[in-house]
Design goal:
Elements (H helix, E strand, L loop, with lengths): L4 E7 L6 H9 L6 E7 L6 H6 L6 E5 L6 H10 L5 E4 L5 E2 L3 H11 L3 E11 L5 E6 L8 E3 L1 H11 L11 E3 H6 L12 H9 L4 E13 L7 H21 L6 H26 L4 H10 L1 H4 L6
Parallel strand pairs: 1-2, 1-4, 2-3, 6-10
Antiparallel strand pairs: 4-9, 5-10, 6-7, 6-9, 8-10
Pfam families: Glycos_transf_2
EC number: 2.4.-.-
GO molecular function, one term: glycosyltransferase activity
């Protein structure tokens, strides 16, 4: 019997986290789902963790050889059977009400292609580094069209829409747009997919925190940070070209003016994750907490 929802987890070398990820999915209050785990030829013991689960909702698919990340994400979705799909990173978590809340939106809004939510950022020990990220402006809450979403991404300069675990999308819409884009950088595939999906349906933002995105404990190298930021800027420039019919000059100007804040926010997040017991962690968590911050400029 076909499930209503497929949660798919592209897995590669996440032995320390994959068990917690699976547990968070199996704890959903909405129960009509399958959990598809696509193991990208992991060699770190992840396969043994997955194989220890004896639950009929869990289905494991394996590559015999490791494939590129984006190809693995697309293959994970291709292995699903349900009309609604959530892609969850193998070290991230979903809150118990995530599927119930998002399926209700999809049932009520047949023209919505993707629904997203907010997320907490957590460290290796599942401690919250920053709360209620993404969807921090009114124009991303509720039902929104392509023009609104694209303009907000350009003005933001990063990803104001949500990470993969935040989103639930229609499989038909995913197939119609060709899945995750393979021509871009893997660092921006989440926001890139969300924007793609708005070309065939609307976006819906739920102002609730329904997932937890994990920050790596090890500090990124300076070159990696620069690469990620360059990927963001390159993606935004591409949006301006591809969606020139809706992007306005004022959106571009605001995005450029905001760029120093985007860079600083990224640096602070990495500092907060690098040493959970450090003063930098405490300061960053305080400044990145919207309840304490109260400034739209940081959103």
């Amino acid at each position: 019997m076909q499930p209503r929802v497929s949660v798919c987890v592209p897995l590669f070398q996440k032995v320390d986290y994959i068990g917690r990820t699976i547990d968070s999915v199996l704890a959903q209050t909405f129960t009509d789902f399958e959990l598809v785990i696509l193991d990208n030829a992991s060699t770190d013991g992840s396969a043994a963790v997955v194989d220890a689960y004896d639950d009929p909702r869990v289905r494991v698919v394996r590559h015999t050889e490791t494939v590129p990340m984006i190809a693995n994400f697309n293959a994970a979705v291709a292995a699903t059977r349900a009309p609604l799909v959530k892609v969850l990173n193998a070290d991230d978590l979903v809150e118990p009400e995530a599927l119930a809340r998002q399926v209700a939106v999809m049932d009520a809004e047949p023209d919505v292609a993707v629904v997203s939510s907010r997320h907490h950022l957590v460290d290796d020990r599942d401690r919250v580094v920053a709360r209620d990220r993404t969807l921090r402006t009114p124009d991303l809450v509720g039902r929104q069209d392509r023009a609104t979403v694209v303009r907000r991404v350009v003005r933001h300069g990063g990803n104001p829409l949500g990470v993969p675990g935040n989103m639930l999308f229609r499989r038909s819409a995913f197939d119609a747009v060709g899945g995750f884009p393979t021509e871009g950088d893997s660092f921006v595939i989440d926001v890139a997919l969300a924007v793609r999906l708005t070309t065939v349906g609307d976006f819906y933002g739920v102002p609730e925190t329904l997932s937890r995105f994990r920050l790596a404990s090890a500090s990124e190298s300076g070159s990696a940070r620069r690469h990620h930021l360059q990927a963001q800027r390159g993606f935004v420039r591409g949006l301006c070209r591809e969606h020139a019919d809706v992007v306005r000059r004022q959106d571009v100007v605001r995005g450029l003016a905001r760029w120093p804040l985007t860079y600083l926010r990224h640096q602070m997040l990495m500092s907060a994750a690098s040493d959970p017991d450090s003063r930098a962690h405490r300061v960053a968590a305080r400044l990145l907490d919207p309840a304490r911050r109260g400034r739209a400029g940081w959103r």
